[in-house]
């Protein structure tokens, strides 16, 4: 039986539960528990066989028609993921059929992938009742089969790869196999991933990692197509996912460049993505309502970007004279004074094309970008952290509290100075990644200490209703209040956030 009750998956809107139980069961196995069901004991005694799969019911009386329909779907998935895309077949399929079960799971859980008692051979369980999902049962089975079977494929490369990357990749595979269904769009919808860009890319909270599907979508859209995903999983056999990504892009600097390009495209209407028009706008904050109120200072006290997350600060610019946007950034540190590696980007855009300049630093720094007023009518300041150990816990499977710390604070002051000049290399927002200025490189030491221990409520945010503090005030910038949030996960009871 399932080791985690479906009622524990407190999430919205495909219902109130985890879409996939695979990672939870993997953690149970790490703790010494056995498989969720004992398939070896009865597999093959009843059910339906297809070329590659054996299907039967488990605590569910499945009809042959249901099993055959599901078997046909899994054969479609096999044909795409193994025969066409060339991924390694799951362990054990060379000598035996892959076991798939229709298993009663209640509402809000699509299915899961686990390994049998030998600790190697994967099997899949699928929920027979998908009436709560918002899709037809057939379409829900299709995307679930593509997702769960890719978990079994992942196990052949690295069973213990990071959960966030496994779920993001499996969600990406749903759309690769069944492009017309687009069920994955839900995770990029309202009150989901785009509303929380400050959360770490590597967060594993039972929800955010599904929305992180946009990262493999970015890689395969702008960096080599679907073959890039396979290349990364082949590298994951010997490396952690992020190390494989650094090697894939070429260097840490190249990875950072791609991260900036990813962040800019997302805030500028998902520029260049085929299905980006279907996704919810990114959450942003206005530094000022118009450029006449510059200089102004941002000094956030909550929801600060964590490791590989980002804060978006918008600066509208009016007028026709070319001016330079100047940003003075003040870096925060951990409580013991340990420096973090910050990544700060200034963006100029006319809504269609853009230019950027980026600095990675462990200390205070300044950035300048010209062309505002004549070439660019809008600016953005993007702030994030490249140091992993900020003390923020995003792991729902661990024993520590989740989202009870915020990363170290920072501040910056933005001003406009007279004078034009070269606006740099312009990115048109097309299918290429454009040119991203990397700015100064980091010269500091690696961050190794804990966070300061400041606390905040996990969710139920209210919006920031005020503008940033004018330069020289010395006050906080007026972030909104956050209420208490119940349950294990973040999505339940979210309040909408003000956006542009």
Describe this structure in words.
There is one protein chain. By secondary structure, this protein is of the alpha+beta class. It has a domain at 6-262: Neutral Protease, domain 2 (Orthogonal Bundle). The protein has helices spanning 22-30, 39-42, 64-84, 137-158, 163-177, 208-211, 214-222, 226-236, 241-249, 252-267, and strands at residues 48-49, 53-58, 98-103, 111-115, 122-126, 285-286, 296-298, 311-316, 323-330, 342-349, 354-361, 365-372, 378-385, 411-418, 469-470. The strands form three sheets. A five-stranded mixed beta sheet has the order 1-2-3-5-4. α3 crosses α4 (137-158) and α4 (137-158) crosses α5 (163-177). The longest helix has 22 residues, at 137-158. The model is unreliable at 1-17, 397-402, 421-426 and 431-500 (pLDDT under 50).
- The percentage helix is 10-25%
Order of secondary-structure elements = HHEEHEEEHHHHHHHEEEEEEEEEE
Q: Strand share of the residues?
A: 15-25%
Number of helices: 10
CATH class of the domain at 6-262: Mainly Alpha
**CATH topology call of the domain at 6-262:** Neutral Protease, domain 2
Mean pLDDT: 80
Biggest sheet features = 5 strands, mixed
Shape: elongated
How far is the N terminus from the C terminus?
47 Å
Q: Could you tell me the number of beta strands? A: 15
Rg is 24 Å
Low-confidence stretches are 1-17, 397-402, 421-426, 431-500
Structural class: alpha+beta
């Amino acid at each position: 039986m399932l080791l985690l009750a479906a009622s524990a998956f407190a999430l919205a809107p495909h219902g109130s539960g985890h879409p996939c139980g695979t990672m939870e069961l993997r953690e149970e196995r790490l703790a010494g528990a056995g498989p969720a069901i004992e398939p070896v004991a009865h597999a093959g005694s009843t059910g339906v066989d297809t070329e590659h799969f054996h299907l039967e019911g488990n605590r569910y009386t499945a009809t042959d028609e249901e099993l055959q329909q599901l078997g046909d779907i899994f054969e479609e998935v096999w044909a795409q993921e193994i025969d066409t895309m060339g991924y390694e077949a799951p362990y054990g399929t060379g000598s035996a059929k892959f076991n798939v079960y229709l298993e009663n799971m209640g509402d809000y859980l699509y299915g899961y992938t686990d390994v049998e008692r030998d600790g190697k051979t994967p099997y899949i369980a699928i929920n027979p009742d998908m009436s709560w999902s918002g899709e037809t049962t057939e379409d829900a089975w299709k995307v679930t089969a593509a997702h769960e079977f890719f978990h079994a494929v992942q196990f052949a490369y690295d069973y213990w790869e990071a959960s966030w990357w496994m779920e993001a990749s499996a969600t990406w595979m749903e759309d690769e196999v069944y492009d017309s269904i687009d069920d994955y769009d839900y995770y990029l919808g309202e009150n989901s991933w785009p509303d929380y860009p400050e959360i770490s890319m590597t967060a594993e909270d039972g929800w955010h990692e599904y929305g992180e599907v946009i990262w493999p979508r970015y890689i395969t859209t702008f960096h080599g197509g679907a073959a890039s995903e396979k290349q990364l999983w082949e590298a994951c056999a010997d490396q952690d996912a992020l190390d494989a990504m650094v090697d894939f892009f070429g260097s840490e600097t190249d990875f950072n460049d791609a991260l900036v390009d990813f962040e800019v495209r997302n805030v500028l209407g998902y520029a260049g993505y085929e299905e980006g028009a279907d996704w919810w706008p990114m959450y942003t904050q206005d530094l000022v309502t118009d450029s006449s109120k510059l200089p102004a200072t941002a000094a956030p006290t909550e929801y600060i970007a964590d490791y590989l997350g980002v804060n978006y600060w918008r600066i509208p610019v009016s007028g026709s004279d070319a001016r330079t946007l100047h940003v003075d950034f003040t870096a925060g540190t951990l409580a013991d004074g340990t420096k973090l590696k910050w990544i700060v980007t200034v963006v100029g855009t006319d809504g269609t094309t853009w230019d950027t300049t980026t600095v990675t630093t462990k200390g205070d720094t300044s950035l300048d970008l010209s062309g505002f007023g004549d070439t660019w009518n809008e600016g953005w300041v993007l702030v994030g952290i490249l140091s992993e150990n900020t003390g923020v816990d995003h792991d729902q499977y661990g024993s520590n509290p989740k989202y009870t710390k915020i990363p170290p604070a920072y501040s910056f002051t933005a001003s406009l100075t007279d004078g034009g000049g070269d606006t740099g290399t312009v990115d048109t927002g097309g299918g290429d990644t454009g040119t991203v200025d990397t700015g100064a490189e980091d010269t500091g030491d690696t961050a190794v200490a804990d966070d300061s221990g400041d606390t905040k409520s996990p969710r139920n945010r209210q919006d920031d209703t005020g503008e940033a503090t004018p330069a020289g005030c010395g006050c906080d910038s007026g972030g909104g209040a956050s209420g208490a949030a119940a349950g294990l996960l973040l999505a339940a009871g979210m309040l909408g956030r003000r956006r542009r």
